[in-house]
Amino acid sequence: MDNPESPEKFSFPAFGKGLAVVAVIYALTGAWLWLSAENTIKAQQAETVSKTVAIVDADASARATGEQHETPLPIAPGLGLPSDISLLGSGLAAAPIEGLYTKTTEGMVPAIREKDGLTPFAAYRRPFDKQAADKPIISIVIVDLGLSAKATEVALGKMPPEVSFSLSPYALTPDLWVNESRARGHEIWMTLPMETADFPETDPGPHTVLIGAPEHENALKVINVLGRISGYVGVVGGPDQIFLNAVNDMRPVLSAIYGHGLGFADGMEMPGSIPATMALGMNAPYMNIDVWIDKTETAEAIRAQFDRLEQIAREQGSAAGAIRPAPLSYQETERWLATLAEKGFVLAPLSAQAGM
Known about the structure:
- The chain is of the alpha/beta class.
- The chain has helices at 12-64, 120-124, 149-158, 174-183, 215-226, 247-259, 274-281, 299-316, 327-337, 340-343, and strands at residues 70-71, 87-88, 101-104, 107-110, 137-145, 164-167, 188-191, 234-236, 263-266, 286-288, 291-292, 318-323, 346-347.
- It has 2 domains: 11-64; 70-354, TIM Barrel (Alpha-Beta Barrel).
- The protein contains 10 helices and 13 strands.
- Strands 5, 6, 7, 8, 9, 10, 11, 12 and 13 form a 9-stranded parallel beta sheet that branches.
- Residues 1-78 have low confidence and may be disordered.
């Protein structure tokens, strides 16, 4: 007979049942946690995607300024552009155009459209029929806009739409200036800082492409600059940039610019032949700035440079000048522009200098 005070005998069946119950509980708990975690991750991913799409859409909408300026009108056949492109109220193509950019970590980098070979230069330039011009044409570009809100606003308010704008890569709120400028008919370019003869005493900033720098470093700087904005036609180089004389450094940079379907305005008043030769070989638009109008910042010097610009236009049939966003430069440019028609010149956007 069993002793009533002895411990109860161990029961394997009861223990097994207990383990089974615990295992089930753990399994159900684990499954719940796994499903909960998965749902949480999916929710976060969905939220991230939603926010990303919202940012991209808002940015694209802001760039295109569709609410205020875009009109679903086909571009005139004479411009040679596909009829699927819409116009802004100013007559310029709405930006960004699908297929004319690649999304990168550095922004929306210009690209040649695969389906028809359309380039940003051809799509975003201000329309101008060079063949119909029966007088010498002159182009003026204001460089390094966007650094000063006041100077940029003055340019927007005072300059006729035929005057082209080149935005600084260091511009604040660049999309705002691009949208406002294009809405008023101004053709947009981007300034690319290059090493100058007095570098580093004069330092154009961290986006400057440098002689002797590793090729991948210069390439990254170029892509960073190209991705700053949408809706521009090309890149403007400054004066006295010895970088353009360093063939091994210059070639990859220009190849990148031309390869993205952009034009290049050479800032060297005495340009070398390689940039133009490369453009010819890549079927890309090239032009050069003939005169930097306000290199010496006095009224007399500026007026003398305008006279020089006119002489070049008479001799060659066309000429391009550049000014900086400064009060005296604006004042003298306004005065000079008012005399162009009576002198027998036609004001044209900078892109017209490429002859394309």
